[in-house]
Amino acid sequence: MKFCKIQGNGNDFIVIENFQSRHTSSQLSEMAMKICRRRQSLGADGILILEGSQRADFTMRLFNSDGSEGEMCGNGARCIARYAFQQGIAPSVMSFETLAGVMGATVDEPYVTLDMGRIDLSGAVWEGIITTCNGRVKYSFLNVGVPHCVIWTEDLNGTSREYLVTLGRSIRNNQDLFPQGTNVNFAELAGPGDINVTTYERGVEDLTESCGTGSTASAIVSCHLFGLTSPVKVHNPGGINEVFLDFQAEENCCNAGLKGKTVIIAKGDITQEALV
Fold this sequence. Notes:
Strand content: over 45%
């Protein structure tokens, strides 16, 4: 089975074509759990599947490393757009279906800019309080295609990985506030137009090197709470995502764009042994 491994600021994925629907959803879920094992298989945060579409250039599906299917992934969407352009599946300016709706992307290799469309902010929580395993914590919450919780900190680099994982897992699994679970972003102001963000990703169940939707959610919250203006540079451990925001105050929404680098790591065949 042919594959391509691509990373977007350290958020890495295995891309597989499924235009003939040879693989069912259950098979893809099982495949994700096998392929994404680090040191035992190819290793990745998830697999990206290209399928046909009646209203766009193709359909993108995402299966996380735990086998769950995600609605959307910003960095994953940028990676699959780069692949689709390289393979001649889509032009440099393209659209593709996701469970979160139709997305647009523009490829200017190695950079890809994702048009995330209109984000409804009417249900956002800007300044809430959540009880966690480490006490009461202030948080913001919004849905940017997938749910994201944002926690602000003053010393992100000085906070241990163990603490972030423990706190992230506690918040992610708070079923009272987040019945569908949530991604958790730990954010820090880094300058007039810059923030630092580390994300605990639902489905990966760990910190990742970068999260595109997490970068977008954190940028939106930084503008709302601290007055940052677009574009916002989001420094993830794996690289920089640039978030473009156009707020429509009267409609309580914003249009969002996400730009970042992609890297094609390898292409080849997945052996049967890697799927055992």
